[in-house]
Amino acid sequence: MNIANAFQEFWNATGVMNFTIGQLVMILVGLVMIYLAIAKKYEPLLLFTIGFGAILANIPVAEISGPEGFLGIFYQAGIANGLFPLLIFMGVGAMTDFGPMIANPKTLLLGAAAQVGIFIALLGALVLDMFPFISFSLADAASIGIIGGADGPTAIYVTSQLSMRLLGPIAVAAYSYMSLVPIIQPPIIRAFTTKKERVIKMEQLRHVTQLEKILFPIAALALCIVLLPTATPLIGSLMFGNLAKECGVVNRISDTLQNALINIVTIFLGLAVGSRMEAQYFLTFETLGILALGLVAFGFGTMTGILLAKVMNKFSKEDINPIIGAAGVSAVPMAARVANKVGQEENPHNFLLMHAMGPNVAGVLGSAVAAGILLAVVPILM
């Protein structure tokens, strides 16, 4: 009898007896993300780790995502307090060359224009709140809005400060649309530009000196401190990494930021984000609304960057190919590569990569500034 009871207790504790339909669906979602990372190479470093984290989070009984589970420990150590996104920003800064933006400061405007998607998503979330089965507060809407900047670390950081409960779907939406840039952007570029505009060749950028590259992160941080202190964690981390790269005297720090540190943090961040994809929290109408708003916001961000580039081309002495406006979203460097590829499809001798990198890195700054504005304003309005 004791053996039978022991066997019954063991059987009741197995995954077979405890799986829910929702958990199986989320494990399938995790497998799809891993497939996209491996087979399609869509943001593989993050989709792979987030997808695996989602699988682990939905294993019944194990409680891997709980306070005592190792994914729960990762989450508390770097997501709940916003640390991991800031470390990622240090690595991004160390890998970013702001030279193209410094050489052509007008591209800052394109990076700013592409952030319109953030406020489109914010307003859309407030509209969805009118439906009885969806409930988004202003803080939720602000967190959802950051998806429109196509900047995963910024989206995670803002959500960790304003709306922790939506971290899973917001992070997944942000990184999913970042990874789908090569699919989403080309049709939008072709829809809002003419053949004549797409074949425009741009002049070679001027040489940017090392002194300019050293002064830029210092000046950017100074402006942030004076005008928008709430954005200092994001912009300060970005500029720390960039100055380490450009100054040329701390190569070991720069190398660590670009390689070891960012790789380690990416593993922890991806698994921790995946741990928030538990079925009972993720499979909701709110999640579907967030995914839809993210797609709309990303499309609007791409469109507004292109439209502003078209206007600038009309009034600029030098030709500006409107395609580079699409790179104003923060998906670095994928958006710039997509702009270059679309340009070369129209004209094989058209090399837009360095020109597109200007608005692309400006988009990183733009999303950080938009995040700072939301972090400053939303708590006051609530």
Detail the topology: elements first, then pairings.
Elements: H1 2-12, H2 15-18, H3 21-39, H4 44-57, H5 70-79, H6 83-95, H7 99-103, H8 107-113, H9 116-128, H10 138-145, H11 152-162, H12 167-179, H13 181-191, H14 195-198, H15 210-227, H16 232-247, H17 251-274, H18 279-282, H19 285-315, H20 334-346, H21 353-381
Helix pairs in contact: 3-4, 4-12, 4-17, 5-17, 6-11, 6-16, 6-17, 8-19, 8-21, 9-10, 9-19, 10-11, 11-12, 11-21, 12-19, 13-19, 13-20, 15-16, 16-17, 20-21
Low-confidence stretches: none
Main beta-sheet annotation: none
Rg, nearest Å? 22 Å
The overall strand count is 0
- DSSP helical segment count: 21
Distance between the termini: 61 Å
Q: What percentage of amino acids are in beta strands?
A: under 5%
Helix content: over 70%
Describe this structure in words.
Helix content is 73%, strand content 0%. With 382 residues, the protein is mainly α. The protein has one domain (19-197, 204-381).
What attributes characterize this protein structure?
382 residues; 73% helix; mainly alpha
Summarize the structure.
Helix content is 73%, strand content 0%.
